[in-house]
Amino acid sequence: MKKTITLIGLLMILAFGLTLLSGCAEKKAVVKDEAVQEQRVGASDTATVTDDEAARKAKEQADREAALKAQAAREAWAKKNAAALNALNIQNIYFDFDRSNVRADAREILKANAEIFKANANAKIIVEGHCDERGTAEYNMALGERRAQEAKQYLVNLGIDSSRLVTISYGEERPADAQSTEEAWAQNRRAQFVLE
Amino acid sequence: MKYQFLWTPLIILLALFGAANSGQASKIYIDIDSPTFLQFPIAVRDFPQKGEGQVETADLGIALPDQIKKYLKMTGLFNPLDRRSFLETGGASPAEQIRFSDWAAIGADYLLTGAITISPSEIACEVRLSDVVRGNALLHKRYLSPRPDLRALARAVTSDILLTLTGDEGDFNTRIAFVAKNGPEADIHAISYDGEDIVKLTSHRSIITSPRWSPDGQYLAFTSYRHGRPEVYLHHLKTGKEKRISSHEGLNLSGGFSPDSRNLLLTLSKDSNEEIYVLELDSMRLKRLTYNYSIDVSPAWSPCGKKIAFVSNRSGSPQIFIMDADGNNVRRITFEGNYNTSPAWSPRGGKIAFEGSINRQFQIFTVDEEGEHLTQLTFDDANNEYPSWSPSGRQIVYGSRSGSKSRICIIGSNGQQMRILKESGSPSVMPAWSPRMNP
After folding, report:
1. Are B240 and B105 within one domain?
2. What does CATH list as the number for A90-195?
C-alpha cells in the first residue's frame, strides 16, 4: 500500500514536471536585484550578409550578366513566337472575377484555338493563367494556375495531347493593361497561349 | 500513517511549482493587452558623461537618451515625458540621490537615469530604471561597447526596459523582409525594426513572392520565377547561398515553416489542383495534407505546431480555414465578407491576422482560432494587405497601397499606434517579420 502511494506520488511529480517543460513560450527574466548586470553590446558584428563584399559583388555581377543573357534569349523567343502567333490568330480567353470556370464565350475560342494547335502538332503549348490586380497576390497565384489548368483540361477534352500542354501562373504580376479600371481588369483576367 | 505518505508528494509538488515560478512569482507585469491600458509615462534623464577617447562621443550623454526615447515611443507602450518639464536637470545628482517626489510631481511612473564613462578602448553605460512611486530600482545594468554604436546601445537598453516592465523584450532585434518591385523585376530586401539598414538579400530580378523566415532565423524561403516559372528557393542568410527546393510541374508556392524550422509548407498543383503539402527539409520528403477540388493556398503553422491555417475557396469564395498538422479536422473560421486571405498566426497563439475585403478595400483583421472575436485593425482609405506578426505578438506589419503610394506599416495588435516603416513610389509588398536575431 505504502509503495503504491509513493509510486503514485512520484508519477504525479513526473507528470507535473513534464507539463512545466512542454510549454510553448519561453520566458526570459531580468534579474532585478541591486547587483549590477553587464552586457557587451556591438562587440560581434550583427550583420549576417556582408561576409565577403568583393566576392559577393563579383557573384552578383556574374548573376546579372547570366540573367541578362537568359532574358535576351527569352525575348528573342517571345518575338519569334509573337510573330508566329499573330499569323496563327490564337486568341485569349477571359474569366469572371474570382472564377476559373471556362465561360460559354471562351468555349468557342478554345475550339478555334484547338484547331490551330492540331494543325501545328509539333509545337508545345504554354497555357498562361493571369488575374487582375484586385485580390491577394498569393491567392491570385493559385487562381491563375487554376485558370490555366481549366483551359488546359478543356483543350485535352477537345483532343489535344496533354503532354503538349504546360501551365504557368503569373497571378496578377503581368497585366495586359496596367490601368485600374473595370475594362482593364476584364482584359487581365485571362488565359493566354504561347506556342514553343 | 497513510496520510503522511500522501502529503509527501504534495509538498515536493508545491516546491517544484515554487521553483518553476521563482523570478516570476514576485513580479506583477502590467497587462498591456488590456483595453484600458494607458501608455507608461517615463522620464529619461540626460546621462552625465566623463572621460574622453573616441571621436563621435562628444554628445553621447544626450544622443543616447534621445535614441532610447525614440525607441520607447516606437513600441507604442511608452509616453516619454518632455525634458523641458523636468524639475531637476540632468547630471545634477548621482543616481543614488534621486528625489522621486520631483519626478512623481511631473507625472512620471518610471525614471531612467544613466551615466557614461568613455575610455580609449571602451564605452561603459550604466543605466538604472526606477519605479518613481515605490522609489526602488527595477533594473540596474552596465552596458559595455567597443565603439559608440548609438543604435545598438539604445536597442539593448530599451529591450531590457521592456523585459523588466512587460516580461517580454519586444521586437528591437528583428528585421522585416519584403518584396521590392522595380517594373517587372523584383527582389527581397530587409529593413530593421527602426526603419534603417535596408539590405538587398536576393539577386533574382524576376517575379518574387511569399518570403517566409525560418523560426531559427537561418533561412528565408520564397517563390521566384528566376528560371521562367514559379519555384521555391531556400536562401541561407549568413552565406547568401541559395537552393531550389521545389520545382514540380505547375505551381510551386512557399508557405510557412514549422516552429522547429525543419518542415516547410508548400502549395503545389502537381496533382492537377492547388493543394497544401509539407516538405521535410532534411530528407526532402513530401507529404500531401489537403484533398479537395478547389484552391487551397497560403498555409501558416500555429506557434505550437499542432495546427495549420490556410486559405480555401471550397465554400465558393476565399476564406480562412484551420486544420490539424496532419490535414485532419478542417474547419472554417471566417464568415464575414466574401474575400478573406493571408492568414498569419500570432506567436503567442490564439489569434490569427488576415486581410479581408470590406467596402471594396482590403483591411487587416484578427480573429481567434474558434472563429470568434473578429476585430478590424485598419480603417484608412487604402488596400492593407499581407499581415505578419512581430515575435512579441504585440505588433503586426502589413503592406499598404493607395494610389501610387506604397507603404509598409506597423500597427499594435490592438489596432493602436500605427507607424510607417517605409514609404516609396515603387511597390514594396509582402512584408514578413523575422524571428528575434542575436543582438
Report:
1. no
2. 3.30.1330.60
